[in-house]
Specification:
- It comes from Aromatoleum tolulyticum.
- By secondary structure, the protein is α/β, with parallel strands linked by helices.
- It has two domains: about 15-140 and about 305-365, 3-Layer(aba) Sandwich (D-Maltodextrin-Binding Protein, domain 2); about 145-300 and about 375-415, Periplasmic binding protein-like II (D-Maltodextrin-Binding Protein, domain 2).
- It is built from 19 helices and 14 strands.
- It has helices spanning about 5-20, 40-55, 70-80, 95-100, 110-115, 120, 125-130, 155-160, 170-180, 190-215, 220-225, 225-240, 250-260, 270-280, 315-330, 330-340, 355-370, 385-400, 405-415, and strands spanning about 30-35, 60-65, 90, 130, 135, 140, 145, 150, 185, 265, 290, 300, 305-310, 375.
- A five-stranded mixed β-sheet has the order 2-1-3-13-6. The chain has a four-stranded mixed β-sheet with strand order 9-10-8-11.
- A hairpin with a 2-residue loop joins strand 4 (about 130) and strand 5.
- Helix 8 crosses helix 9 (about 170-180) and helix 10 (about 190-215) packs antiparallel against helix 12.
- The chain is globular, with a radius of gyration of 21 Å.
- Bound molecules: beta-D-galactopyranose.
- Beta-D-galactopyranose binds near residues 36, 302 and 380.
Length: about 425
């Protein structure tokens, strides 16, 4: 992160301020919350978070930084922390939680976690991500599944083809869809979206063990090997079936192409479902959710979570604890995730109000966990450090935008990028 020195300096200033102005007796506080939930379904979920905080008597100060995948938000966050003015809470995920924890700028949530019994409520795969050095420093709002394919059944019907279940079935189906006048794959040409599609292909072509070895353990021979070449070859096939206007298209516009029947399928995590839901579409009828080809038995997880930054005001600290508590409540986990498309992070929740896609996700999460095929999403900052993921994402995007690049060359480059610290 290379911001340690400056952060330590700014923390000293903050700490000095605590001594001088330590508040007594908690009152309503204004909490600034950084997030990037600005698309339809996302914004509805963020509004629920705001409502929940305000029901505890605090004030929500919205710090929304648009940009799917959160890259813009993370850039803005860094400059705010470096200047000694961090927000009270921020949506930060995966190994980045530990990176911020190591900077010594995060609040310890152990007390709230202990009182709320979080250890018993969260699956270990989730609680592990929320801790730094054995202490809770983050609270999870959900579990997203990334390896989904969102399909418009009407388009498939009109083209006279079945939804492909394997990557081998994919080219024949897409060819017919194109001939029938539809866009086979709705895609937005942005690096994080390219990487999202790529990881689902890696999972489908190579399986969970290959995925883990290559994209989590960063094993050099696996990254450079023949299976990775095949992954890039398949990625190049997908590129053939994306429309020419895809450059820079935001992800929810791509989802819109499935909703309005212009395109057949989109490879995207289940925040896409939030878009279908807010457009009033019904799963199984207007659209279908199926695992990306070849990945029905596996699950790439992406856990959204909030961290709290150390604050000098006692009222704000109390507000942070209330926020953390509220996020873990069953009521919040239900309403937030009904809008967001994800499933609750808490175990043993009643899913009656959830749709079939969410129920399938919950079942597959558990089954994959037992099978050993539950893997962290690299494109959504769950698998490796932000620096490493960023370097690898650059290679994937470069390949996608450079038809002349050979899969072997791309695999070699990916392996080199994986050495980035
Ligand atoms: C993911 C995030 C989701 C969703 C998506 C698109 O990284 O975990 O909550 O917001 O980006 O913005």
């Amino acid at each position: 992160m290379k911001i340690r020195t400056r952060i330590v300096h700014s923390c000293l200033i903050v700490a000095f301020g605590v001594g001088m102005t330590a508040a007594t007796g908690a009152q309503a506080a204004e909490l600034e919350v950084l997030h990037w939930w600005t698309a339809g379904g996302e914004a509805k979920s963020a509004a629920e978070l705001k409502k929940m905080l305000e029901s505890k008597g605090h004030k929500w100060k919205d710090f929304a930084v648009a940009g799917g995948g959160g890259e813009n938000a993370m850039t803005v966050l860094k400059s705010r922390v470096v200047s000694g003015n961090p927000p009270a809470a921020a949506q930060i995920k995966g190994p980045s939680i530990g990176e911020w924890g190591a900077e010594g700028v995060l609040s310890n949530l152990d007390e709230v976690a202990k009182a709320g019994g979080w250890d018993g409520l969260l699956p270990p795969v989730v609680s592990k991500v929320m801790k730094h050095g054995g202490h809770y420093v983050a609270v999870p709002v959900n579990v997203h599944r990334v390896n989904w394919m969102w399909a418009n059944p009407e388009v498939f019907k009109k083209a006279g083809v079945e939804i492909p279940r394997t990557w081998d079935e994919f080219p024949a189906a897409t060819e017919k869809i194109q001939k029938a006048g539809f866009v086979p794959v709705a895609h937005g040409g942005q690096p994080w979206q390219d990487f999202t599609v790529f990881e689902s292909i890696a999972l489908g072509v190579g399986g969970a063990d290959f995925y883990r070895k290559a994209l989590v353990e960063l094993d050099q021979p696996t990254l450079k090997g023949p299976t990775m070449e095949k992954v890039f070859t398949t990625f190049a096939t997908v590129r053939k079936y994306v429309d020419k206007d895809s450059a820079n298209r935001v992800w929810n516009q791509a989802t819109g192409m499935i909703i309005n029947g212009k395109a057949a399928m989109q490879f995207m995590g289940d925040w896409a479902k939030g878009e279908f839901t807010s457009a009033g579409k019904v799963p199984g009828k207007d659209y279908v959710c199926v695992a990306a080809p070849g990945t029905a038995e596996a699950f790439t997880f992406n856990i959204d979570s909030l961290v709290m930054f150390e604050q000098s005001s006692g009222d704000v600290r109390k507000g942070q604890q209330d926020l953390a508590n509220a996020v873990m409540s069953p009521a919040f986990q239900e309403v937030f995730n009904l809008n967001k498309g994800s499933i609750p992070a808490r175990m043993n929740m009643n899913l009656d109000k959830f749709d079939d896609c969410a129920k399938l996700s919950a079942r597959d999460f558990e089954a994959a966990s037992k099978r050993g095929s539950l893997v962290p999403s690299i494109a959504h900052q769950m698998a490796v450090s932000a620096a490493t993921a960023g370097a690898m994402q650059d290679v994937v995007t470069q390949f996608f935008n450079t038809p002349a690049m050979k899969p072997k060359e791309a695999a070699d480059k990916l392996a080199r990028a994986a050495l980035t610290k």
